[in-house]
Amino acid sequence: MRYHAFVPLAAAAANLIVCVPVVRKGMREPIFRAFLWMTLTVVAWNLDLFALYYFSDVASAEWWSRLFRTGVCFAPATAFHAALALSRSWRRPWTYLLFAGYATGLVLAVTNARGGLVSGLTPHTWGWYIQPTRAYRLMTLLLIVYLPLIVERSWHAYRHPSSPRQRVEAKFWLLGAAVQTPFSLTNLLPAYGLNVYPLGTVGNVVYVSVIAYAIVRHRLMDVDYVVRKFISFSLAAALVLAPGAAGLYALSQALQAEAPGVFVCAALAVALLAVVLIPALQDALETRVHRALFPQVYDYRLRLRQLAAALVHVLERSALVARLGEALTDILDVEGCHIFVREEAKSPLVLAHSAPQSTAELPGDVAHALEPLTEPLLTSELQAMRSPAAAYFRAMNWEVAIPLRIDDRLTGLIALGRNRDFRIFSAEDLQLLATVAAGASVALENASLSRQLRRSEVVLERANRLSSLGMLAAGIAHEIRNPLVAVKTFLDLLPQRLDDREFLSHFRELSLGELRRVTDLIADLLALGKSKTAERRSIELAPTLEPVVRLMESTARKRHIEVAAAFDPRVPPAWADPDQLKQIIVNLLLNAIETSSAGGHVWLKVRPAPPGSVVLEVRDDGPGIPADQLENIFHPFFTTKETGTGLGLALVHQMVVEHGGEITVESRVGRGSAFRVTLPTAPVALARTGT
């Protein structure tokens, strides 16, 4: 076999191999049938050249060439047929042109069978080549007429697509045509005396491969990906190979033929440098090429990457879902964005965001079919998988399904509609959306954990409040018992002293005073025990905290500890929640009382601080806190007391921070401790903490 014959034979085999995936898709779609006919005529063209290059005797070459040329006669019509299938152009003017093309091809095929297209063969370096007759010009004319029509229909499909996929398919057809056309024209030049090696076989393999990729693949690359890769690689190769080639040329001129080993070593060095430098330069150039040639695409993909990184910082689920939906709608410019999430681990998916507004719900069978989904999928991919969700997605005009997963659990789903600019969701877009989905999944899980943490904080705060009330109750019981003893004594003596008006008047006033004292103590205790939603406002500190001090005095007296309070008259109102402020002071005073020994002292001092704040200081003369424990005292469940829970100071710290204030502690072993709470006098921007 002459080696020139290998090129068209390999091209024919390659085209047949490329055609296999299309045939496996079935022949129900017009575009698949048109592609098959077009590919067979291209294969016939390649085999025609193979026969001319392979057979050494003119008779065999002419007979086999004429046989395969029969298919070549229909090549322009089949290519036009495929372009009509792409653009869905089945109206009369176009179908008439298609019939005319096939009719002309039939005339040419009959003429060819009778030997009217080629008068003979002439030898060339690569084999035989035809001597065309005047009738052969009709084939050339047919190609020249239908090639612009093919380009026009492809361009029409690009400019006026019925779907985003049709537009990107048209892009690939135009790209394939741009590559094939100059190669195909070289096949005609030797017939007119121009001795140029025919390269049409190379071009038609590229053309057929590009079209097969466009109509078979569900997840397409966008053309911008191909273009920027090609340009960046070409620039990188030129930057490395041009100086290398110049250097090798200069070296060869200097050495002549005296040192071939040196030249070979230099060539190997250039090759190694090319292998290392070209990929590195291509990566560096690709971003610049992308930004220069496709700024809009570069911008929205950059914004998608930034969105994926930003989502993990949003801890409120409603805000997170709204931001995700609004950002995807804006960045991708889609007609619709629906986000479904689970309220709990085993609850069904419910609609959490929709743009435009709708009440679309996810049917149970659709949600069940999407459970195994692990990556973003196009609706066409769902259809190819014969998923029950495909029909619902088509009915809702959704283009892509994006699962949100954590630990192999489907926690949510994003359904995106069609792009308003008829841009497809390319393979690169789907990879970026997978990154966004990963960030959103983590953010949703964080939001869920944050919500659970807040619930736990409420429970802990309530438990700490009840614990404080229990400790206070023990001290208050003594305070209540003494007045009740006085009242009981009065009631016991009453039957014997009914006629003593002075006794009745004196002990009546005494009993009422004692009962008022009991009532005040109970009222203070109930006020402290109420659990309300935090409501910060401007409050006077002395009237708010004096009842708390009275409550603590009873507990302190039981332990033989003296409690004193001092309120600076210049202190301004603080911006705080009254109930939480009382809880802060109760916890600090209780902590000081419990750590103090009998005969000790506890002080509460309230004074103004630098402009815009006040200081509340609780000091004791107890044993103090070791230095190595100071940094842990505000940690949950850390305690130095045998019966402590370790929650009191942790909750104090959290409430102070949520007020926009700060708490500090000073302590010396054997000299006591001082806790200072600084609170603002005006509203400040607040941030939740996760103590």
How does this structure look, described?
This protein is α+β, with helices and mostly antiparallel strands. It folds into four domains: 3-217, Rhopdopsin 7-helix transmembrane proteins; 228-287; 300-446, 2-Layer Sandwich (Beta-Lactamase); 460-680, Histidine kinase-like ATPase, C-terminal domain (Heat Shock Protein 90, 2-Layer Sandwich), CATH 3.30.565.10. 61% of the residues lie in helices and 13% in strands. It has 21 helices and 14 strands. The protein has helices spanning 6-24, 30-54, 58-72, 75-87, 92-113, 136-159, 164-185, 200-216, 223-255, 260-293, 295-310, 317-332, 364-370, 379-384, 389-395, 427-493, 501-529, 541-558, 578-595, 627-630, 648-658, and strands spanning 118-124, 127-132, 337-342, 349-355, 377-378, 398-406, 409-417, 537-539, 562-567, 574-576, 601-608, 613-620, 662-668, 672-680. The strands form four sheets. Strands 4-3-7-6-5 form a five-stranded antiparallel sheet, with helices on both faces. Strand 11 (601-608) and strand 12 (613-620) form a beta hairpin. Helix 1 packs antiparallel against helix 2 (30-54) and helix 18 packs parallel to helix 19.
